[in-house]
Every structure is written in structure tokens, then in C-alpha cells.
Amino acid sequence: MDRMIAAVPDLGGRVFDQAGRVTPSPYVTLGPSHWASDDADCIDGRVLTLQIDVWGHGTTKGAMEDLTDDIAACLQGWSDIDAVTMHPVTVSMVRVMGDPDPDYVHGVLQIEVEIEA
Asked: Which residues does 43 contact at the CB level (< 8 Å), separation at least 6?
């Protein structure tokens, strides 16, 4: 989360585990995650997949595409080996779509990272 806050100033620091609809936009929330075992020889590993949701109120899909591109660029290839033994992050999917609330636009990024468990 700190990486997005530091590298994407258009978010204004609004990166949350959870946020309500009253949160000023744009903002990011962490979505679902899952992992699969990726053990090798004597190393316990896993591939972690995380969804990152980006929300914009009163914005366009084009502006959301620009914002999701900025987030993808800041995460692609990033790693924090001081915090965890990991391979660099891979951004495997980016999608921009409408929301059931027509005043919102929703961006979704999916990232994957191989980590040592």
C-alpha cells in the first residue's frame, strides 16, 4: 500500500484495506486474494494473487485508465526483499468498467507475486 501512496500522487494517499462510499475519490481498496502452493526442493513457497480495486466518482473511463496505468507501472517489477523473500510483482490484468452506481467508474488490477512462505 505504501508503494502506491508514494508513487501515485493522484490517489492523494487514499489507499485502504476497506473504505466507504463517502471516501473522497479516487481511492484504492484491497480486494480478494488467494494463494497457491509453489514449493520447490526445501523451500516453502506460494504464488499470491491480489485484486486491487480503484474507485472514481464523477470521472471518466479514460481518466480511470490513466490512473490504473499509473498504479500498474508503480507495481510492475517492484519487490520489497527487506520485508519478505519474494520475486518482483507481476501485474497480470488491468480492467476498467462501469459500476452499478452510474456516478462511479471501477478499475481492477490483479497482481501476482511468488513469495517464500
From this structure: 116
